[in-house]
Amino acid sequence: MNVTPLQKARYEYSPKLPGMLRGGISQISVKVGDATESVADQEKIKALFPNTYGKNEITFVKGSNTAAPKKQVVGVILSGGQAPGGHNVVCGLYDAIKATSRDNVLLGFKGGPSGLIDDNFIEFDDEYINAFRNTGGFDIIGSGRTKLETEEQFKIVTEVAKKHGLTAIVIIGGDDSNTNAAVLAEYMAAHNTGVQVIGCPKTIDGDLKNEDIEASFGFDTATKTYSELIGNIERDANSAKKYWHFIKVMGRSASHVALECALETQPNICLIGEEVAARKMSISSIADYIADAVEKRAAQGDNFGVAIIPEGIVEFIPEFSKLIAEINELLAGKKTDEFNALPDWAAKYDFIKNGLSAEAFAVFDILPQFVQQQLFLERDPHGNVQVSLIESEKLFSALVADKLAARKAAGTFKGKFGTQHHFFGYEGRCAFPSNFDADYCYSLGYNAFMLIQYGYTGYLSKVSNLSKPAEEWVAGGMPITKMMNMERRNGEDKPVIRKALVELDGAPFKYFEAHREEWAVKTAFTYPGAIQYFGPAEVCDLTTRTLALEKGEM
């Protein structure tokens, strides 16, 4: 296989482990912490997880390893969307397994959770693993979005586990995937299968975190990748001086990615969905907010700028979320087929006008036609609008153009407004992981095996104190049920891991809020450049601005 010089160098990089995980498996002991309870709905969660609820948090420390020796056969899956560093979780898990005994086995089930159901797997060996160390992507075994949630699926997984003599299953995924891990762990415990289940916190979106999980892996690399691209665009904008660039960034519902990129690059505008919801901002008021910045910059001769738009912004606009809810009802059941059978957009427009409330239609009618049509594209598996398909970067630039045209007619705006549009998402999901993510992910995998060796199940591999050098990181485990609450899903109350949204009283947002008025008018762009893998630690091992601010280190 041909490899680039960077690939070869990254294969040879040795990830850094937390201090308590260094020095050999035989020197890792356990310190048992407090019992836990779920973040909400304690009685309901406890009733649903009687075998795995309320367990103690644990921390690994230096000391004699007291785990009972036994052969370990572990299965691992990658679940959900890609995130940089996933390969290193598998590599760390593999190295810990083999460091304990060369007779131990790691099986990688292909294509996500469906690999467990279909019994589609590979047994890892040194040669196979070594080709994926410190690399991006999930191509080591592939990923998938199948949910493990039915009795039938659990029975099949149990039979597959029994066939291979699995002692544990490690699920590497986001909030939904780790919710499934908790449910599977409960099932395995309730049926005395002897199979442990451990989760690892993955998502570039940054919404799988709390007081215990300081960051999900992949967030660091993805935001650094997007920030490099945004910085490049800012440099271009400041060179050409003729375009406003509207940039949508991935991140699902939460605005963590957008906020981190804003902290890294200091754009003129960055919308934060959680603030939009809290202030009940309308589409029109958001467009006015952006137009004000365009007008002020034009008055000083700067007919250019950069605006960052989070992927899930429209969900946070109250009037827009009501519109989406009505559209979901309008197309419920067989009405989708009836709508799709209409001959042209004019007929579909009349159908929509007659089906929506006057209030919802008023919002719909101010949208550009391309956005109106995007609201009626293919539905998600639950029959709902796929808001990620809405080109919100184009939506807001069109609305701002309308606002500025009206101001020009009124004589208050005398500048120019040319636009370019970008969407950064897939560019960051499989990048070579930063040193931080390479180290963090390797530690999560290594740590996951320690949880297995000590007999824990229903736990999330946890590495904290992440704003410090890796030597000072703290490894341990947290019961997944601690992160859970009840939410309404598809007409039913279900236990799920609570998503972490941007906290408007948190240090990262407060820093942004304190500087954004200056950034809006000035050309205060900063240019992070490419991720650095070699050089001084203060450059190569740099954490995100979000994490530094949360830890009071900025």
Structural account:
This protein folds into 2 domains: 5-218 and 433-497, Rossmann fold (3-Layer(aba) Sandwich), CATH 3.40.50.450; 224-428 and 506-550, Phosphofructokinase domain (Rossmann fold, 3-Layer(aba) Sandwich), CATH 3.40.50. The protein has 23 helices and 16 strands. It has helices at 5-11, 42-48, 86-100, 113-118, 126-130, 151-164, 175-190, 219-240, 256-265, 273-278, 283-299, 313-316, 318-330, 335-340, 345-355, 358-365, 369-374, 392-410, 426-429, 435-453, 507-521, 537-540, 545-550, and strands spanning 28-35, 56-62, 73-79, 105-109, 121-123, 143-144, 168-173, 196-201, 244-249, 269-270, 305-310, 419-424, 459-464, 474-479, 484-489, 492-497. The strands form 3 sheets. Strands 1, 2, 3, 4, 5, 6, 7, 8, 13 and 14 form a 10-stranded mixed β-sheet that branches. Strands 10-11-9-12 form a 4-stranded parallel β-sheet, sandwiched between helices. It is globular and about 80 Å long.
Taking the sheet with the most strands, its summary is: 10 strands, mixed
Our Rg estimate from Cα atoms comes to 25 Å
Per CATH, the class of the largest domain reads Alpha Beta
**Count of spatially separate domains:** 2
The rounded distance between the terminal residues' Cα atoms is: 44 Å
> Helix/strand/pairing class, anyone?
alpha/beta
Strand percentage, roughly?
15-25%
By DSSP, the count of extended strands is: 16
The low-confidence parts are none
Sum up the overall morphology in one term. Answer: globular
Helix-residue proportion: 40-55%
By CATH, the topology of the largest domain is: Rossmann fold
Q: Helix count?
A: 23
Instruction: Supply the CATH architecture of the largest domain.
Output: 3-Layer(aba) Sandwich
Query: Kindly state the mean pLDDT as a whole number?
Result: 95
